[in-house]
Structure formats: C-alpha cells, structure tokens
Amino acid sequence: MGEQLIGNLIQFIIAGSDTTTNTMYFACYMLAKHPNIQAAMQKEIDEVVGNERFPTLEDRRVLIYTEAFFREIDRYYALAPISIIRVNSDEVMVQGFKIPKGCNFIANTNNCLRDSKYFKNPFEFDPDNFINSNGELINVQSFVPFGIGKLHGK
Q1: What is the pLDDT of residue 48?
Q2: Alpha helical stretches, state H, 34-151
Q3: Rg (Cα) of the chain, in Å, rounded?
Q4: For residue 9, what pLDDT is reported?
Q5: Structural domain contains residue 144
Q6: Which of 33, 58, 81, 114 could form a disulfide with 110 if both were Cys (CB 3.0 to 4.6 A apart)?
Q7: Helix (H), strand (E) at residue 86
Q8: What gap in Å lies between CA 37 and CA 105, rounded to an integer?
C-alpha cells in the first residue's frame, strides 16, 4: 500500500472514532441539561421497545423523537463544520455564477446547519427541528452534518 493510502485510512479511522465519541458525549450532556427531552425519549423507548428486549435497528424507524434527537446533536454541534475539499469536473452555473472546471469547493456545513429557512429554531437545541406537524420525521435539505457528498457536473 502507498503511504498516501495508509495516511488516508488512518485519517478516516481517527475522524470516525472522534465524531462518534463526540456525538455520545454531547448526547449525554444534552440529556442531562434537558430533562424534558430525556423524559420524552425515555417514554418513546419504553412504548416501542419496553423492558423485555434491547432496541433493534428496525426500531429506529419508529423511534421518531429519538432519531430526531441524534440528528439534532449532529446539527447543533456541527462536528464537521467544514467539508473536505471537492473539485468540480465540469464548468457549471450555480445561482447565476459561472464556476470554472477544476474549482475547489469547501462547504461551510455549519452555516447550512443554522439556516432558518430549513430549521424552525436554528440557534437552539430542539429535536423538533426534524419532526413535522404530523409527528413524522422529516429529511431536511440543509442537514449535511458530515459534508455535501459528491459534486455533480452538468
């Protein structure tokens, strides 16, 4: 293996363990700071899972408030406030601006995660940022806690 590949693998391992550790740290902190949120999560988990078994991956789709809580942790704390550098492969137009081929992009994910256009309470910790009026989990376009993904050409 090349040195660059080994370096990249080490970076991914460190980044992955660091964000997971920080997510759990901030989750414990916010549950302690917001007993009302902790009570709502406990009630939901008790109703869905009960005391006779451990939660499963299948439970995740019905643990709406719990899922919203963890999304809110990733949003509120912006564990990766800027994305890694991306380079566009084609010349593109973005909102009237011509972006030449080969341009470097660094997304400010922190700004996306604080956009009042997409989040009801962008500067407060509020799991309801991810729950609609029908009590359903919503996918927010601006929720990009770990980057913006692949850049597309034309």
Answers
A1: 97
A2: 35-48, 64-77, 109-112
A3: 19
A4: 74
A5: no
A6: 81
A7: strand 86-87
A8: 37
Q: Which residues face 137 on adjacent strands?
A: 131
Nearest alpha-carbon partner for 74 in 18, 29, 26:
26
Look up the domain containing 37 and give its range: 1-137
List beta partners, residue 105: 86
- Record the pTM: 0.76
Quick one: pLDDT at residue 99?
87
Token couple for 137:
């989990």
Please list the pLDDT of the chain residue by residue as tens digits (154 residues): 677 777 767 766 766 677 788 889 999 999 999 999 999 999 999 999 999 999 999 999 999 999 999 989 988 987 776 667 778 888 888 889 898 998 887 777 777 788 898 888 899 999 999 999 999 988 876 676 666 665 555 4
Long-range contacts of the stretch 31-40 (C-beta < 8 A, 24+): 34/125, 37/69, 37/127, 40/65
104 three-state secondary structure: strand
Q: Which one-letter DSSP state was computed for residue 127?
A: G
40 lies in some domain: yes
109 with 147: CB under 8 angstroms?
A: yes
Helices (H), ranges, the chain:
3-33, 35-48, 64-77, 109-112
Q: Which two tokens stand for residue 13?
A: 């391992």
